[in-house]
Write a structure and sequence with these properties.
- InterPro entries: KR_dom, NAD(P)-bd_dom_sf, Sc_DH/Rdtase_CS, SDR_fam.
- Its EC number is 1.1.1.47.
- Pfam families: adh_short_C2.
- This is Glucose 1-dehydrogenase.
- By secondary structure, the protein is of the alpha/beta class.
- The chain has a single domain, classed as Rossmann fold.
- The chain has eight helices and seven strands, in the order E-H-E-H-E-H-E-H-E-H-E-H-H-H-E.
- It has a seven-stranded parallel beta sheet with strand order 3-2-1-4-5-6-7, with helices on both faces.
- Helix 3 runs parallel beside helix 4 and helix 4 runs parallel beside helix 5.
Length: about 260
């Protein structure tokens, strides 16, 4: 790939939600850092496109369509890593959804249920099976969960999303504390507003939001998905070997103001 000795060279890494947005960007960044990749996402066609692109660029990639809310499917993709490459070294649990913004009293129960099911139960499912695999790995492992600035503070009219991302931050810290002495590190990235298909559509439907968010961000811009992926790659790598239990903002300064 692009460097002789990549940041993730020699590591088998699972990425969920890898068919688009931050997940697809992570697949490209991690491949450039010489990771061996196991990709998972619900959209099989888009997932296959990402895998094919990376293979054509020289990466070693396997993939499986996966709904992280289903434990059997999560177990299957972790088993794919073990059966194909013999171990799992790192994971980026990126799969998640946002949902429409609305006042709490106007939200339908299904909005809450869908967000919590994907963002919290999905992360829970991934952690359990990844940790089981890493406990069998003599080198341990590193897991990175994708939280949000909404996991550090409130976001207007997004109560279920905020609750779910606070839960992801809590799961990160709980797992980090429980497995720190068994060579498994667990951290989280907390992205600010990041350019993706979902965010682009959100801005198109709510054109007043983008300038408001830029005004609230010291760097006065929206992140590129690759910028979030670079932070996740560092946390997955041995360069962050004494870092665990951290929920790291990658937000252009949004949470410091």
């Amino acid at each position: 790939m692009t460097t002789e000795h990549g940041l993730l060279a020699g590591k088998v890494v699972l990425i969920t939600g890898a068919s688009s947005g931050i997940g697809a960007a992570a697949a490209r960044v991690f491949a450039a850092e010489q990771a061996t990749l196991v990709l998972a996402a619900r959209r099989a066609d888009r997932l296959a496109e990402v895998a094919t692109e990376l293979r054509e660029r020289g990466a070693q990639v396997v993939y499986a369509p996966t709904d992280v809310t289903r434990p059997d499917e999560v177990r299957r993709v972790v088993d794919l890593a073990l059966d194909t490459f013999g171990r799992l070294d790192s994971a980026f649990n990126n799969a998640g959804i946002g949902g429409d913004q609305n006042a709490m009293h106007l939200m339908d129960d299904t909005v809450y249920e869908q967000i919590m099911e994907t963002n919290v139960r999905g992360t829970w499912n991934c952690l359990r099976y990844e940790i089981r695999a890493m406990l069998e790995n003599p080198r341990g492992g590193s897991i990175v969960n994708n939280s949000s600035v909404g996991g550090l503070q409130s976001i207007p009219a997004a109560a279920p999303y905020v609750a779910s991302k606070h839960a992801v931050a809590g799961l990160t810290k709980a797992a980090a504390a429980e497995y720190a002495d068994r060579s498994i590190r667990v951290n989280s990235v907390a992205p600010g507003t990041t350019r993706s298909e979902i965010i682009a559509d959100w801005f198109a439907r709510n054109p007043e939001l983008e300038p408001r968010l830029h005004a609230a961000t010291p760097q006065a811009r929206t992140a590129r998905a690759e910028e979030i992926a670079e932070a996740a790659a560092w946390l997955c790598s041995d360069r962050s070997s004494f870092v665990t239990g951290v929920v790291m903002p990658v937000d252009g300064g949004f949470t410091m103001v």
